[in-house]
Design brief:
Blueprint (H helix, E strand, L loop, with lengths): L4 H16 L10 H24 L12 E5 L2 E8 L6 H18 L6 E6 L9 H9 L3 E5 L5 E2 L5 H4 L4
Parallel strand pairs: 2-3, 3-4
Antiparallel strand pairs: 1-2, 4-5
């Protein structure tokens, strides 16, 4: 489903206003960490896209949505996040927020939302999996070995095509 032209224009207008604003926030990010995160994001996107293609469907993306796919089982929106043990909590929060916004802006109330993270949460953060699935009604998966995706058993019906 194409991204609404009016929504795209709205984002472009906001972006232009932000560039013109006089206040700038300078954030220093270690270049090596940024490159690692970008590589992980690209790897996850390619991995999920490959699994979607293998299942016989066509993955789509645009500048806002990492991946989406229309299937007989429903419409899926995917948000990929690079993660470490230290940042997984914040990254999952960001993914949830982005996915909910995308679903709303694209007027897809029935779309299934999928957070795809680079690494499974560490033991002390495993509660995030239950929170995402049971409380937020969002699906979650993570990289298994750069070739496969892992996901909780209770999501196998919805995410089996990624396995």
């Amino acid at each position: 489903m194409p991204f609404s032209k009016s929504i795209e224009r709205e984002y472009q207008n906001i972006e232009a206003r932000a560039r013109k604003s006089k206040g700038y926030i300078n954030v220093l990010i270690d270049d090596a960490a940024r490159e690692r995160a970008e590589d992980a994001h690209r790897m996850l996107t390619n991995l999920v896209a490959a699994r979607i293609r293998t299942a016989g469907f066509i993955p789509k993306s645009n500048q806002y949505v990492d991946l989406s796919v229309a299937m007989p089982g429903g419409f899926y929106l995917f948000e990929m996040k690079s993660t470490t043990d230290k940042n997984v909590h914040g990254q999952v929060r960001r993914a949830i927020s982005q996915l909910c916004e995308y679903r709303y802006l694209q007027d897809l109330p029935e779309a299934k939302l999928v957070v795809v993270i680079e690494n499974p949460p560490p033991q002390e953060k495993r509660w995030i999996i239950d929170y995402v699935i049971k409380d937020r009604n969002i699906l979650i998966a993570w990289d298994g070995d750069k070739k496969t995706l892992k996901f909780p058993a209770e999501t196998a019906t919805d995410l089996g095509f990624l396995g």
